[in-house]
Amino acid sequence: CMPPRRQKLCVDFLKQLKGQTDEKLVDAFIKSAAAETFLSWHKYKEDTQKEKATHTADNDLNKGIIPEDFIRQMYYTFGDYRDLCMNKNIGNDVSNVENKIKDVFSKADGTSSSNLSREVWWKKHGPKIWEGMLCALPGTENFKNKPDYKNPPEDFAKQPQFLRWLTEWNDDY
Fold first, then answer.
1. Phi, psi of 161 (to 5 degrees)
2. Burial of 77 (C-beta count, 10 Å sphere; 0-12/13-18/19+)
3. What residues have CB less than 8 Å from 94, skipping those under 6 apart?
């Protein structure tokens, strides 16, 4: 059962992907992930301001801290984008996106036009996608290069999607 956060995952730029090049796919992933982070941040701020009238989430970012419960959402989101790239998505809501990604890795051996497998492609471009997510937050210069945020949560993202979703549901309820 797909968590609410994932039901609204921004894949607009991936849906609009035209062409089968690595560069266009990287661009579409970065833009989708950045848009998702931007929109999620504004929802998060609304939700936390209702709960904590004296605390604003932007204050944390200005101090160089991404709130723990929001960074967790970013980890789950990064994992979902990785699953799309690796063709390991268990949802059935983005088959058109999956087909566009499949077209990029359409060579007979399943590689891209640059001869990259999905795994190698993600290893090369995943950090750029993570950086795009960080850059979508206000005050990114305050935390982007901090050791806690600099590297993408690759080990977390490699966990099976079902287990991540189960954990996310458990954390939310």
1. -55, -40
2. buried
3. 9, 11, 14, 84
Contact of 66 with 74, CB cutoff 8 Å: yes
Most confident of 116-125, 132-141, 155-164: 116-125
Q: What is the mean pLDDT of residues 121-126?
A: 97
CA-closest candidate to residue 42, choices 14, 17, 10: 10
Q: Are 6 and 91 in contact (CB under 8 A)?
A: yes
Q: Which residue has the tokens 């797909």?
A: 2
Number of domains in the chain: 1
CATH of the domain at 49: 1.20.1310.20
Tell me which residue range forms the domain holding 146.
4-172
Q: What's the rounded Cα separation, in Å, for the pair 165 and 8?
A: 14
Question: In Å, how far are 30, 75, 84, 151 from 81, measured between CA atoms?
Answer: 10, 10, 5, 16
Token couple for 114: 């640059």
Q: Is the pTM of this model over 0.85?
A: yes
Q: Quick count: other Cβ atoms within 10 Å of Cβ 50?
A: 8
First to last CA, the chain: 14
Contact 58, 49 (CB under 8 A): no
